[in-house]
Amino acid sequence: MMFSSSLEHNFTRPNERGEYEVAKGISSTCFRAILDYFKNGVIRCPPSVSVPELREACDYLLIPFDASTVKCQNLRGLLHELSNEGARVQFDIFIEELIMPVMVTCGQRGDRECHIVVLTDDDVVDWDEEYPPQMGEEFSQIIYSTTMYRFFKYIENRDVAKQVLKERGLKKIRLGIEGFPTYKEKIKKRPGSRPEVIYNYVQRPFIRMSWEKEENKSRHVDFQCVKSKSITNLAEAAVDPGPDQASQRMAAQDAAAQPAAADLAVVDPYPVALPPPPTED
C-alpha cells in the first residue's frame, strides 16, 4: 500500500534484487534515527549526524523538521536550521507585501532592475531640491519597514533571501549594507566654485536585482559604414582617387610645371671665336 502510488508514477522502482531503495544517499545511522519518528513521533539526532544532514534527510522523506519533532544535543545547529526556515517564510511575506509592489512600479516605468533601500519607520529623508545627493540615490526605491531592517541586519538572513530570489528567477542579486543620505547637514560655499552639500548618512540594508539576463546590452548589432580606400575600376579612380594616387598625381603635375635643367641653360646669341692654342716648334 505504501508503494502502490509510487509505482504508478514511477517514483520508486525495484533494483536487480527486487528491493526498493527509499533512502538513497542517507546514512544508516541517520535513517535509523528517522525511523523513530514513525514509532513515537520524535527524532533524536545522533551525535555522529550533523544537523544539516538530518535536515536534508527529513526534507527528502517529507518529515516535518521543527522543535516538536527533532530533539538535538547541538542546540546551536538546531536553532540555526530553524532560523533558516523561519527566514524563508518571513522573506516570502516581505516579497509579497513590500518588495513586489516596488518591483511592479519599476517595471511599469520600463526599468529592468530595481535598487531598494530599507529604512526604519523613524527615518526621515529630506533632500535639498537645489542640491540633491550626487551619488545616484535619487534612483533608489525606499521601503520604510523596521521589521525588514532588523531582518537584513543578519548576514545569514541575507544569504537566505538571496537564495529565495534566485529560486524565483531573478538575476544579478546583491544584498548588503550601505550608507544612505537622509537629510542635509550643512553647505560649504567656496568662491568661484559650486557649493558643497554635506548630508547625514545612515547605514541601511539594500537589495539590488534584475529580471533580465543581460544588463545594458542590446541584441541589435550596430554596423558603422566606413568609406573604402580601395578603387575597383578606372571610372572610380578618375572620380575619387585614393590618397596614394592623388599624391603621385600632384607630384607629377609639379614636376611638369618646373622647367628642365637643359631649359635653364643660358645660350649666348653672339658666340665669340676663341684663338687656336699655340703650337710648339
Percent helix, as a range, is 25-40%
Mean pLDDT: 79
What is the percentage of strand-forming residues? 15-25%
Radius of gyration: 42 Å
Ends distance: 155 Å
- Along the chain, the helix and strand elements come as HHHEHEHEEHHEEHH
How many β-strand stretches?
6
- Sheet with most strands: strand arrangement: 4-3-6-5
The unreliable regions are: 1-11
Largest β-sheet summary: 4 strands, mixed
What's the total helix number? 9
Structural class: alpha/beta
Coarse morphology: flat
Question: Which labels suit this protein?
Answer:
two-stranded parallel ribbon, 9 helices, 17% strand, alpha/beta, 281 residues, flat, four-stranded mixed beta sheet
Topology diagram in text:
Elements: H1 4-8, H2 28-35, H3 37-40, E1 43-44, H4 51-60, E2 70-71, H5 75-108, E3 113-119, E4 141-144, H6 146-151, H7 155-167, E5 171-188, E6 196-210, H8 234-239, H9 243-257
Parallel strand pairs: 1-2, 3-4
Antiparallel strand pairs: 3-6, 5-6
Helix pairs in contact: 5-7
Q: What would your notes on this structure say?
A:
The protein is α/β, with parallel strands linked by helices. 36% of the residues lie in helices and 17% in strands. The chain contains 9 helices and 6 strands; from the N terminus they run αααβαβαββααββαα. It has helices at residues 4-8, 28-35, 37-40, 51-60, 75-108, 146-151, 155-167, 234-239, 243-257, and strands at 43-44, 70-71, 113-119, 141-144, 171-188, 196-210. Strand 5 and strand 6 form a beta hairpin. The chain is flat. The N and C termini lie far apart (155 Å).
